[in-house]
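>> Question from a student workshop board

For tomorrow's exercise we were told to take the sequence and the ligand below, predict the bound structure, and bring the output to class. My setup keeps failing. Could a helper post the expected result so I can at least see what it should look like? The ligand is pyridoxal-5'-phosphate.
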Amino acid sequence: MDRNYLLLTPGPLSTTSTVKEAMMRDWCTWDDDYKGIVQDIRGRLLSLAQADVDAYTAVLVQGSGTFGVEAAIGTAVPKEGKLLVLENGAYGQRMEQIAGVLGIQHCTLNGTPDRVLDGERVKAVLEGDADITHVAFVHCETTTGILNPLEEIVRVVKDQGRKVIVDAMSSFGGIPIAVGELGIDYLISSANKCIQGVPGFSFVVAKRSVLSECKGNARSLALDLYDQWETMERDSGKWRFTSPTHVVRAFHQALIELEQEGGAQRRCTRYADNQRTLVRLMEEAGFEAYLPVETQSPIITTFKYPLHIPFAFVGFYYFLKERGFVIYPGKLSDAEVFRIGTIGDVHKGDIERLCEAVSSYVTSAQQGGIAI
Ligand SMILES: *Cc1c(COP(=O)(O)O)cnc(C)c1O
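>> Workshop helper replied:
Here is what the output should look like for this input. Compare the format with yours to find the bug.
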């Protein structure tokens, strides 16, 4: 299938033609065929999360990823509860904002975008504040591409006897996560990230024993995760309100393709190969990555604006777009950066072609051929 351009962004991302073709039929939302697909998706998500069906459940929620985060936070934390948000980027800040808008008692442990979250600091905050019932944090902070130490943070929170909510939006499916073994209470992701579906819904993998205690907690009707779960269970895959049928069908196909690729571990290997190739070739072209390799995820990479050539992001963006690649602007207030994603139906050869285009931009700029 012809592409207008390759998306090198952290979602929506480039999908296979077979995922797109899966949307070419119309489905009835309450018919058994369709509900069967929903149930199959819920089962496959639990396998992907390495979570046991008796202990965990998967709930699908209409809307983009943020809707899933808002549904999870707004339903998980009871009226008398208190949320601690760990923040080292824009998506952590968004969770803090959600808690504020919903009127949830909360506090924030602020970090910096170039440093991973620190388990010792989290432990100290939890030891000093017995009111905190829940802790929320982002696994891969897409703002920079930094990979927070998931296992360390989850262990600290669990050792302190609190519930943990993980925004694994940009990592789930692209990095293996042992949700069951770690005892994660809520893990949130969406259709259009590493599972490589199209945008339209998010999902929450939740511990049954924990979610079952959340009836009546929600501060919203549409984003009531408990109610959504209850309906999906009782009516075998029925969504409470109109579900994004075509998106669901495409997602089912995307899950099958993830399994065909060899699962999250194999996909992670491909993404990591893309990412290493990207950094190597970008460095050859004179660009420098914002993060050191130790904290860098395979998902998305932040690059500093180059100093060796006259450079403006907009010109660079359109130069690459004309050649079939769409990249991402930066999201940091204190550093001039841009981002390139390495997830989706994107392969090493694509990254090599992208970097050839980047090199020709650099050559033109050096020769004065690019007006800034
Ligand atoms: C993409 C993303 C989200 C959700 O963003 P939406 O625009 O609502 O889909 C949340 N957290 C992280 C870390 C993300 O990468």
